[in-house]
Amino acid sequence: MTRARLRVPHPVVALRRLRAGVLGTVAVTALLYLVVADRAGEQIAAADRTGAAVRHIREAYDQAGKANDALDAVSGIGAIGLTGTGDDFANATARVRSHLTSATEGNAAGERGLSHIQFVQGQLATCVQLANTAVLDGAPGVARARDALDDAPEYEGSRPVPFTGGLRQSLRDLALLEDRARKDQLRSGWRDPGLLWPLFTGPLVVMLLLVGVTGRIVVRRFRRYPSPALGVAVLATAAVGVAMCTTAPPAAAIALPVLAAAGALAYLAYRPRLAEYRFPRP
Prior knowledge:
two-stranded antiparallel ribbon; membrane; transmembrane helix
């Protein structure tokens, strides 16, 4: 019986196949970039809207502080029955209302976030009502209005219970709620690191294996060192993959030319060895 022998391809044939494989991994990376960047774009835009909502809530918090200061100033002169709450208080609370309305558009916490926004809007209305009533009640009424603005939250052990304090505390709790929702947006779906890392490191690992085999053939069969261009091609492909996994997708005007350059460098890296075999030196 004759033992079957494993057929080893000619080095030139092997290099051609390896070159096709390396170019294929670059093409796969480019395709993955286009798909993920497209699908993640809407998700990132939603996270940006949520970020704007968080900024509006923080602005509302600052304005609520100004409203509290305005009440303090009016109560300090003891003439609230004559002057009322004053323009500063009215303007600050109007800005709080406006910022909360704007924040609703970027709500990312679903029904829970919407219900808390409505709760805070109700707290604002109560604060304004108590402040207006203070014109008749005097200092005790002002104290109640200020408590509604800046009361401390309730505690369970050493932990404060969200949305149990005054308006300012509730605005702080709301900002934290929306900020957590924004972070979840940036870590889920097409921005989930558990999806992106395998997706982009898979082609890169294959590329590294192909480049390693290429270097072995070039050294052993051609008695040459592998072209540095091949290493640069690997680094360029890896740069796009790592950027996709760790930051927002880079612009197509940057990523696609980088990958095109990686493909060109990989192609040129194999060319001297193939040309040398085709046209051997005397």
